[in-house]
């Protein structure tokens, strides 16, 4: 199966962040490397602004906010004008009019999307670590699973974490975002009893389905009727392996 991270490609730009020390549009001073050195993951969203940027920027905002309970204060979104030429008044007016929350918002030629390769509308770059690494780089749309994976990696979440978030690429969800239902595709090395669970951001199980999995590829529909809009985890457990992917219900 195709990996969920296909849209995030470090080859589209540099592999380390470009540092800046700037005041945002409210006059608050930020030092990017200082944020990263302090353990924060910064998700930089470059916008024009434009109509086509509204939905992706909102999606990223919601994904970032989904870490608030599990990693409080560790994942932050920066909203940045694509070329630093839009006035702060115009950029913040666009942000506020479209339901994007208060967050560090920048418009300055010192930080532009061209620093990270091919332009996009929007362009989404995940930065983290004391090595100031680029963990994800996506253009034009939001691949939810890939963005979660990039943020998890930047936070240092590995297969050893207690919540068994492993083998993300082994679970595919289509469609995603979804309403009503989604198809869950996964593969196992050995067949056996499997359990598919839908969890909310607090780890509570909202749906569970058991099935007999076969060695190789498996697929089934997951009912999403009655599930409120938002972001959820889909966990597939087969034997002693648990794999996870993320989904947005719309």
Mind explaining what this structure looks like?
It contains four helices and 14 strands. It is an alpha+beta fold. The chain folds into two domains: 4-155, 3-Layer(aba) Sandwich (Glutaredoxin); 168-249, Immunoglobulin-like, CATH 2.60.40. A five-stranded mixed beta sheet has the order 5-4-3-6-7. Strands 11-10-13-14 form a four-stranded antiparallel beta sheet. It is elongated and about 55 Å long. Residues 1-12 and 159-169 have low confidence and may be disordered.
Key descriptive features of the protein:
250 residues, Glutaredoxin, alpha+beta, four-stranded antiparallel beta sheet, 2 domains, elongated, 36% strand, five-stranded mixed beta sheet, 4 helices, Immunoglobulin-like
Q: What is the CATH T-level topology of the largest domain?
A: Glutaredoxin
Strand order of the largest sheet: 5-4-3-6-7
Major sheet attributes: 5 strands, mixed
For the record, the CATH architecture of the largest domain stands as 3-Layer(aba) Sandwich
Give the N-terminus to C-terminus distance in angstroms. 25 Å
Shape: elongated
- With helices defined by DSSP (H or I, 4 residues minimum), what is the helix count? 4
CATH-level-4 superfamily name of the largest domain: Glutaredoxin
Helix % is 10-25%
Query: In percent, how much strand structure appears in the residues?
Result: 35-45%
């Amino acid at each position: 199966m195709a990996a969920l991270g296909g849209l995030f490609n470090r080859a589209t730009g540099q592999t380390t962040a470009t540092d800046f020390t700037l005041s945002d549009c409210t006059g608050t001073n930020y030092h990017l490397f200082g944020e990263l050195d302090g353990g924060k993951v910064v998700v930089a969203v470059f916008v024009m602004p434009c109509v086509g940027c509204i939905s992706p920027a909102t999606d990223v905002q919601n994904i970032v906010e989904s870490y608030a309970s599990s990693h409080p204060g560790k994942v932050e979104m920066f909203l940045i004008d694509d070329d630093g030429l839009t006035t702060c008044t115009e950029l913040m007016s666009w942000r506020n009019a479209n339901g994007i929350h208060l967050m560090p918002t920048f418009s300055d030629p010192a930080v532009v999307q061209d620093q990270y390769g091919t332009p996009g509308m929007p362009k989404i770059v995940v930065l983290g670590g004391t090595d100031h690494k680029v963990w994800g780089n996506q253009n034009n749309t939001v691949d939810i699973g890939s963005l979660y994976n990039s943020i998890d990696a930047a936070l240092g979440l590995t297969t050893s974490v207690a919540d068994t978030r492993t083998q993300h690429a082994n679970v595919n969800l289509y469609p995603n975002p979804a309403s009503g239902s989604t198809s869950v595709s996964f593969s196992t090395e050995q067949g056996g009893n499997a359990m598919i669970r839908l969890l909310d951001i607090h780890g509570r199980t909202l749906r569970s389905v058991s099935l007999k999995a076969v060695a190789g590829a498996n697929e089934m529909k997951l009912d999403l009727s009655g599930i409120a809009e938002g972001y959820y985890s889909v966990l597939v457990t087969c034997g002693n392996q648990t794999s996870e992917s993320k989904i947005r219900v719309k």
